[in-house]
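Deliverable D4.2, example record:
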Amino acid sequence: MSVKRARPTAAELAAAVDARLRRAGVPERAEGEKRYLKSDLTFYGVGRPGIRLIVGAVLQERGGSTEHGGASESGYLLDRRRVLAAARALWAPPVHERRSAAVDLLDRHTALLRPADLALVERFIRQSRTWALVDWLAIPVAGALVERLPELESELDRWAADPDFWVRRSALLALLPPLRRGAGDFPRFSRYADAMLDEREFFIRKAIGWVLRELAKKRPALVVDWLLPRARRASGVTRREAVKYLPAPDRARIVRASMK
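Output generated by the structure prediction step:
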């Protein structure tokens, strides 16, 4: 007969994760990642796979779940309130690995989140200032929320017009999971991408091309039909990403169209 363990507080979970992250950190890696990401955050020097292992181990040892969605077969379920509190506690200090652990915690428990919790995700996106955190928040966290809760689509509409380009990028990437499967709301993506296509911001250009590239794996004709009449407007970054998985004749057509 399994015995339920005492539920850890959010502060205890955050402290346990932080202690392990510190022990696992590699100073040389910390210096390199800080330079690469051009970040003002403190770095311990732990990669994303290591962060995920540490978060999973702490949850398992302290009675939490290691499964996406938050369900624990051992009899303990990490509830929504504790997930959100622990994520906030991890995020508060300006440490890259702690903030990555906060995102991982949300990622593991997206099935517990409610519409109001998108506000916390948005706050984290605004404070991230780096693709390494923004994309993780946008795709599996915000993306899962919006796909499960269609009433949040109006929030994505707002994001797509936001002055902060990281928020605009997140609006694009939050639509990626179902589009990647060959489903999803392509008309919404088309509206967002068309409005942003003339932007000079690299991370916007890259995001448009990234979504089109992934969509092309399942629906290449849709990508060709969308990109051909916009080939001259699309940046080189967007086109190069978008055509990677298209047949050679289609790639050539788009290149020719971009030169007219």
